[in-house]
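Q: Fold this one first, please.
A: Sequence and structure below.
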Amino acid sequence: MPPRSRASAAVGIKAFGAHIPRYRLGKERVGGGSAQEKAVANFDEDSVTMAVAAGIDCLRGMDRSQVDGLLFATTTPPYAEKQCASIIAAALDLRKDIFAADVTGVLRAGTNAVKMALDAIAAGSAKQVLVVAADMRLAGPRGDAERNIGDGAAAVLVSRGDVVATVEGSYFVTETMLDTWRSQGDTFIRSWEDRFVVEEGLQRVVPEAVGAFMQKYKLTPRDFARACFYAPDARRSTEMGRRLGFAPEQLQDHLFGKVGNTGAAYPLMLLVGALESAKPGDRVLVASYGDGSDVFAFQATESISGARQCRGVARQISAKKTLASYETYARWRDVWTSEGAARRPTPPMPSLTALWRESDANIRLYGGRCRKCAMLQYPPQRVCANCLTLDQWEPVRLSDKGATVFTYSMDYLAGTTDVPMVLTVLNFDGGGRMLCIMTDRELDEVKIGMPVEMSFRKLRVVGGVHNYYWKSVPVRA
């Protein structure tokens, strides 16, 4: 089908991106004789840090000042009472006069947020809304759910005009269903009897929603190049496609055995994967699940050919490292404790006034450039170290700049989860120097002169306060 000529005035997706953690729990480590692997977030990652990474990927090369709103979708927010979207907006260096909200509590939170963004743009209250979805769910050790759940994030910039994919239609079903849940205080997700969950839940609700959508818009499976369905495992994904009348070649890669089901981010991650390889005119069907179902149809425009600047899904799947043991993963999630780390007193809770006062330097990662001599310093200083000019500096965002390692050290006694702690001194491209921790690293790859980039991570959690900062990471292919 030819692309729509009205793409310049239509509402749809202007840009997209994703984040898949670097590490995998390998085939021999997942347990239960599994022949697959899954993506696992590092010990200093959570749904907020992964959402920031996906947002950076989505906004690569874009003017961030044009974003009018941010919606963060997750079922695993680090805070039960504090907005996480505000942290993400600051880390992405978005304007302060934007609308932001957390959309949580249900697995279809990602597509719920897309619906809200589309409505805001259609109503004229915003021109561009960034939707980021991320999850880091936990299931009981060595079980089927743990083998199929992965960590990750996806982001789409919803906009009017000059979009890479227009929204062709939508349909929504809301129905209370206690099949998979997690109550306040639960560490692991809970689930009811498998056959009931699948037959009375997923395989009944999604086909009803997709069937009603097809009838509403007079469409058939043959009208779509790609179909993206929520599924708890690879078998159910294949069954769903067959049940709905889609040929195997129409089904988007379900990511099981590579990444896993990424919760609220899963339908959007499949959509990002489909858009990466879409051609002008291709239609993509997306159906989420969780207390109902949201169904969307997108159609790629001629602009899709120029939307390849993000890293997206495919490249991050191949850029990976495998964990040496299941015990490492369990220690990262605080499921098991280890006596291997150096014993240290519990660190004090960070000063909340200092966190607020220094948020531009620590969260937005602003350096300061002297207006007189153009020297760049981090953190910003009132007095220029070069020309001694007082209070004549302008903020410069460093979070999206490349850097190289000037020097480094390894601390085996720091008491960190990932021994040793690698401290790096970085030289940013275009000027500026910073001392920070390196993460997502293998010791044999750390060297002077290696290229790195910045990644928003957790330093620690003390007193319920999640202390975020930027770390250096090796550049991923």
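Q: Good. Now the second chain.
A: Here it is, same layout.
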Amino acid sequence: MTFLLDETSVDSGNPIELYRFVGSLDVYTYTSGNRPMTYNSEVYRPVAMQRSEIKLGDVTERNELKVTVPITVKMVKDYGFDIPPPELTLQIYRVHGKSGAIQPWFRGSVTAITMEGTKAAVAVPSIFSAYMASEFPNVMYQSQCNHPLYSPRCSVPRDSWKIETAIDTILDETKIVVAAAAARPNGWLKAGEIITPTERRLIVEHNGAEITLNYPFRAMAAGMEVTLYAGCDHSIETCDDKFDNLVNFLGFPYTPSLNPFLVGLR
């Protein structure tokens, strides 16, 4: 039996899929089958997972695959909560029990991982679909600045706004004490980042020496070296008062909040 005959057969088909996630931190191999399987010297371990339909050859609409896995798998723990999410790709192989032939079935880059109760939904558009859906950079007509902090157009030098220090105390999974943070005004680090040699997290609160993260680090211990970076709320006041960078502000803070064509002139 060949792969094609097994794939199109009503009685002989017994498909098993291999999922290979490749990222900067690690490689994760899972299978939809009920027992471990070895392919190219890598062991694919069984995981209770589901996926949406793969529309092979369909270029008329966005071809995005949704893979659902338990939130407890290591891939989700490593990649589901980083800000910004690190690069992660998925390669799916398909094999039938009778022929034993393994065929590449799908490939794409993970664009999002969202939590749905005890499951994690992994969004993976095909490579072609991702290119077709790409948008040109644009500027929003909003009061906040459009530039990401520390980006080339923002021009604020990243290294000038960092604090190299260490964690003093761990209060809980997302709240830590960093004594060096107390030297800055409350909120100075909010919307900034805390970085270890291998991970980065968003700082959602800063009050004195206490810092709250958006999600725990995979490994965290008192005394661990970290780098803190100042945050920005993208308002014109923060741009001017905190960063002295008004010349590069790209927002529209003086736009009237009321439309005179709707409410009239007062």
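Q: Anything worth noting on the second one?
A: The helical segments are 3-8, 74-79, 127-132, 236-241, 260-263.
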